[in-house]
Amino acid sequence: MNAILNFKNTLALPFLFAATALTAQNEIHSTATDYKYGNTTVVYTKSANYNDQAILSQLDNSYGVGDVVRIAVAQPNQAASEMLASDDPAVMFAVPKAAPAPAPKVVAASPKKVEPVAVKAPVMEPVATPKKAAAPVSVIGGKTVKKGSIFRLEKLYFDVDKADLKQESETELDRLFGFLKDNPTVAIEVRGHTNNQMWPNVDFANELSTDRAKAVAEWLIAKGIAASRVQYKGFGWTMPVEPNINAEGRRKNQRVEVKILSM
């Protein structure tokens, strides 16, 4: 009797497992792996009327001890997983392998041809060199003079070894006065010179040349030329223009000149 019962039990267990597997298979819609929560296995059922034990019994031989299984109802239009055959009475469910994403097609873009841009060289404007202002000039007695010019008063007359201007000198002095009056910005230095006839009396030569220059300056100032415009100085025999070896040379060396200080 016991043998018969044992035989029945032996035959019943496989049928029980098969029936349970079939029931679970009919209840399971698909499976998935939720990587967000430690590789949790999610079993989606076809409806809310599922048997936990029947579903879990199909996963015993497919997952290790401690695997987490979550059972949820499949959403509408959710694709079903393929069911893989197993040697065990249970059925293993697996999500079909996703098709590998096609490798992105890399297209080597040809570099765009860049047309050279002609850069027009800047036109350098010529730097205008400022023109140097021409020095002011004027004319006296037919002679053109400017700042720094020195000219001789040709017709001045003195007695020998004297500094008093003779009456015959006024024509030359009037011409100098007119020049200064017509050119109010001109300042002059009247310069007296002697020859070496009084050698070696250098002091007398210097005194005589200075007094003759002073006589001309004072005449101009007396006629109305500002004293600030007229200076005078004597140089004795230190600046000869000719050798003092004859009368002609000595005559030319004994003279009164005018230097233009400013215009």
Give a written overview of the molecule.
With 263 residues, this protein is an alpha+beta fold. The longest helix is centred in the first third of the chain and has 26 residues, at 2-27. The chain folds into two domains: 2-93, no CATH class; 137-262, 60s Ribosomal Protein L30, Chain: A (2-Layer Sandwich). It contains five helices and eleven strands. A four-stranded mixed sheet has the order 8-11-9-10. A three-stranded mixed sheet has the order 1-2-3. It is 28% helix and 19% strand.
CATH architecture of the largest domain: 2-Layer Sandwich
User: What does the radius of gyration come to?
Assistant: 67 Å
Low-pLDDT parts are: 1-18, 82-98
* 3D shape: rod-shaped
Q: What's the CATH class label of the largest domain?
A: Alpha Beta
How many alpha or pi helices? 5
Tell me the strand order in the biggest sheet: 8-11-9-10
Count of individual domains:
2
Number of strands: 11
Q: Cα distance, first to last residue? A: 159 Å
The CATH topology label of the largest domain is 60s Ribosomal Protein L30, Chain: A
Mean pLDDT: 77
Q: Which sequence of SSEs, written as H and E, runs from N to C? A: HEEHEEEEEEHEHEHE
Strand coverage percent: 15-25%
Class per helix and strand makeup: alpha+beta
